[in-house]
Write a structure and sequence with these properties.
mainly alpha; globular; disordered N terminus; 10 helices
Length: 203
């Protein structure tokens, strides 16, 4: 049995910091409301998400990370496109937590059930537009030996995106890969209040 499998059967390596410690770090008042019709609708009435609670054990780190994550959430990329990237990252890095939350967000952002179900098959699966396939391919290329977006993929995305959006593509892949590493290594659990979170598809 590998170490990764062993940790799934033991207590989390790191528990979330108390919500009252985390909320001030991210400017979230105790009575903050989430738009019930928005992309974060599954968080309505919920406490601080566990991933933020875990990073909140290092307050200075959370204060530095959170503005960048917020900037991506309110950025120049269409939310559907950024969610397609995050779902591919969550699948490739085997992050059940990331997959569950971003299936919910991606569904609200315009990804169909068929598209979400196709993410595990990757960029070469039939049915993707050239643009969507290029987005998924970015994840493969940045995780490959060159750690660089190929000229072909860059040109395909440049046909639709300006420089700011291209930068957001790169930062999205890097940021959510980083979060997946934290989630996996700290054994961050899906929240008890998340009713029926979608399962991560088999690799």
């Amino acid at each position: 049995m590998t170490e990764a499998n062993v940790t799934q059967n033991t207590r989390p390596r790191m528990v979330p910091a108390p919500a009252e410690q985390v909320r001030p770090l991210i400017g979230m008042p105790a009575d903050a409301q989430t738009d019930p019709d928005g992309p974060l609708a599954h968080l309505v009435g919920s406490p601080v998400p566990n991933i933020l609670g875990v990073v909140g054990n290092h307050p200075a780190l959370l204060r530095g990370m959170y503005p960048m994550l917020s900037a991506l959430g309110e950025g120049k990329l269409p939310l559907r496109d950024s969610e397609l990237l995050v779902l591919r990252i969550g699948y490739v890095l085997r992050s059940r937590y990331e997959w569950a939350h971003h299936v919910a967000i991606g569904s609200k952002a315009g990804l169909t059930e068929d598209e979400i179900a196709r993410v595990p098959a990757g960029p070469d699966a039939p049915g993707w537009s050239e643009h969507d396939a290029a987005l998924l391919r970015v994840v493969e290329e940045l995780r490959g030996p060159a750690a660089r977006v190929s000229d072909r993929t860059w040109q395909q995305l440049s046909a639709a995106y300006d420089d700011q959006q291209l930068l957001e593509v790169l930062v999205t892949v890097g940021s959510y890969s980083m979060l997946a590493y934290i989630i996996s290594s700290c054994d961050v659990a899906i929240e008890d209040w998340y009713a029926d979170p979608p399962a991560l598809p088999e690799a």
